[in-house]
């Protein structure tokens, strides 16, 4: 079986280096927020192109910390999308803020700036004022940061980029995560930069914001045992930080391999009625997921399964239709029609850097038959 994602393969590929890093932490006697976290934060910020990065427990908490650091909470609404990992919306509610879900641009699956503009012009009745926008660079490709950034500037809104699927993705040559007030990352094992457990980070070039976030992640402490802010506990541990330092050094090569596999799939899909992922002008796609679109999605998935090829659906149900949110969460004035249409047509093909050329060819050959 060719699986859709394979974090175990990425461990095995770097086993000697990772085992040495883990042994170093075990021997050090220091396991939480120490030298490894400090070094990883500095290395990750340098790679990302921000002045600071603050490690935390996971990508959901990274969003919570970024919003709280920016003063977003009760009495604020935050515009995001419904076509995303539920974590994006859950994190907004964890701060006490109210999510407003914007429809997607059906070609690229990211926030539709026209729907954002319409929602800002006529916000849903009874909602707290929209204070921030949280676009998701979904599947490894930038949302339209020109249009969304412009709307944030003209409306005086904070911009937080959810980069959980887009480590290394670019927009007009600069890394995503350098355009907003803050950017949030997940290091869940299957992400482009994955730990061997949970991890996350907030990147920003606002030093005061980074200091506030670093305090809130650990009980609001700026010095031990004294809470200046109301805090929480969302620390990155030394073991994961040491592993992430190993993996960060290989991230650009891993993203290049993802792009090479995507190019093989693109060619194989030519002449079929399966639509390959559309590339947005100005965006450098890092293929966290290679998501095709077809009306015959379930049949394609079954056909691949019969050929020993795994696939995934990201996501089978929009957040606003899931039981925890249905009938309760606000949408823009036009609803989320494109989001609902995408959910039944998207399919994520196997794509991870350690796939062999033979595995890639097997997947590519499976498209050649009529869908
Ligand atoms: C994975 C993910 C998150 C949450 O990250 P966790 O580390 O699982 O908390 C948030 N947003 C998006 C878009 C994600 O893909």
Summarize the structure.
The chain has 371 residues and is α/β, with parallel strands linked by helices. It is built from 13 helices and 15 strands. The protein folds into 2 domains: 241 residues, Type I PLP-dependent aspartate aminotransferase-like (Major domain) (Aspartate Aminotransferase, domain 2, 3-Layer(aba) Sandwich); 117 residues, Aspartate Aminotransferase, domain 1.
Structure description:
An eight-stranded mixed sheet has the order 1-9-8-5-4-2-3-14, with helices on both faces. The protein has a three-stranded antiparallel sheet with strand order 7-6-12, with no helix packed on it. Strand 2 (77-81), helix 5 and strand 3 form a beta-alpha-beta unit. The chain has 13 helices and 15 strands. The longest helix has 19 residues, at 251-269. The chain is α/β, with parallel strands linked by helices and 371 residues long. The mean pLDDT is 97. The structure holds pyridoxal-5'-phosphate.
Flag low-confidence runs.
none
CATH superfamily of the largest domain: Type I PLP-dependent aspartate aminotransferase-like (Major domain)
The average pLDDT value, as a whole number, equals 97
**Ligands present:** pyridoxal-5'-phosphate
Question: What fold name goes in the CATH topology slot of the largest domain?
Answer: Aspartate Aminotransferase, domain 2
Main sheet properties: 8 strands, mixed
Structural class: alpha/beta
- Could you spell the SSE succession in H and E letters? HHHEHEHEHEHEEEEEHEEHHEEHEHEH
The percent range for helix content is 25-40%
Number of domains: 2
Q: Terminal Cα separation, in Å?
A: 20 Å
Number of separate strands: 15
- The CATH architecture name of the largest domain reads 3-Layer(aba) Sandwich
Number of contiguous helices: 13
Q: Radius of gyration from the CA trace?
A: 20 Å
The percent range for strand residues is 5-15%
Estimate the global geometry from the Cα principal axes. globular
CATH class of the largest domain: Alpha Beta
């Amino acid at each position: 079986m060719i699986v859709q994602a394979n974090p175990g393969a990425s461990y095995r590929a770097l086993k000697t280096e990772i085992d040495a890093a883990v042994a170093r932490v075990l021997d050090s006697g220091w396991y939480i927020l120490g030298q490894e976290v400090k070094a990883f934060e500095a290395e990750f910020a340098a790679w990302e192109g921000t002045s600071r990065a603050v490690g935390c427990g996971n990508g959901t908490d990274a969003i919570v910390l970024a919003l709280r650091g920016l003063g977003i909470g009760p009495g604020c609404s935050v515009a995001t999308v419904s076509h995303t990992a539920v974590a994006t919306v859950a994190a907004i509610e964890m701060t006490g803020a109210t999510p407003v879900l914007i429809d997607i641009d059906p070609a690229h699956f990211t926030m539709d700036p026209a729907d954002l503009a319409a929602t800002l012009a006529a916000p849903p009745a009874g909602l707290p004022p929209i204070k921030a926008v949280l676009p998701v660079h979904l599947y490894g490709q930038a949302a339209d940061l020109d249009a969304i950034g412009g709307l944030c500037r003209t409306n005086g809104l904070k911009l937080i980029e959810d980069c959980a699927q887009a480590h290394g993705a670019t927009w007009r040559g600069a890394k995503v995560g350098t355009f907003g007030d803050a950017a949030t990352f997940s290091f869940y094992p299957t992400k482009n930069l994955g730990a061997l457990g949970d991890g996350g980070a907030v990147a920003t070039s606002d030093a005061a914001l980074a200091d506030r976030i670093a305090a809130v992640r650990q009980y609001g402490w700026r010095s031990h045992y004294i809470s200046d802010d109301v805090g929480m506990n969302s620390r990155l541990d030394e073991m994961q930080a040491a592993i992430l330092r190993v993996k960060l050094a290989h991230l650009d090569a891993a993203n290049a391999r993802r792009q090479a596999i995507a190019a093989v799939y693109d060619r194989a899909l030519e002449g079929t009625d399966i639509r390959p992922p559309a590339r947005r002008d100005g965006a450098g796609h890092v293929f966290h997921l290679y998501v095709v679109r077809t009306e015959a999605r379930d049949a394609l998935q079954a056909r691949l399964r019969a050929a020993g090829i795994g696939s995934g659906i990201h996501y089978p149900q929009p957040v606003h239709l899931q039981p925890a949110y249905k009938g309760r969460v606000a949408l823009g004035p036009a609803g989320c029609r494109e989001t609902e249409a995408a959910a039944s047509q998207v399919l994520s093909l196997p794509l991870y850097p350690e796939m062999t050329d033979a595995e890639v060819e097997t997947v590519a050959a499976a498209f050649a038959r009529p869908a």
